[in-house]
Amino acid sequence: MPPLDRARQLALALVSERGEASGAATARELQDVLQALPPDNRAAFFEFVAAQFQPDPAALRAAAERYIAEPSARGAMLLSRAAEPPR
Questions:
Q1: How confident is the model at residue 59 (pLDDT cuts 50, 70, 90)?
Q2: Alpha-carbon distance 37 to 45, whole Å?
Q3: What pLDDT is stored for residue 36 in this prediction?
């Protein structure tokens, strides 16, 4: 597997894993793969991360519009949840 693809695969695995030990091992491997990537591939990896792990724009907009229309603690909580990136 090309190193850039491996880095993407590891990043996806890292956010989906639950175990602390397996997450640490995955993070170490990802760090090793990233250090070995040439600069253009490293930039491509960070573009992947920026696109893949952002909050859902439509859900975020809807939550923000609901909060603006009717500010409340519950609305703030829902907005905060909508602003969280996928994990």
A1: very high
A2: 9
A3: 95
The Cα angle at residue 65 between residues 71 and 68, in degrees rounded to 5: 30
> CA nearest 29: which of 50, 45, 4, 7?
7
Contacts of 77 (CB under 8 A, 6+ apart): none
- Nearest Cα to 10, choosing from 38, 40, 52, 72? 52
Who contacts 11 (Cβ-Cβ below 8 Å, separation ≥6)?
A: 30, 45, 48, 49, 52, 53
pLDDT of residue 25 exceeding 80: yes
pTM above 0.85, yes or no: no
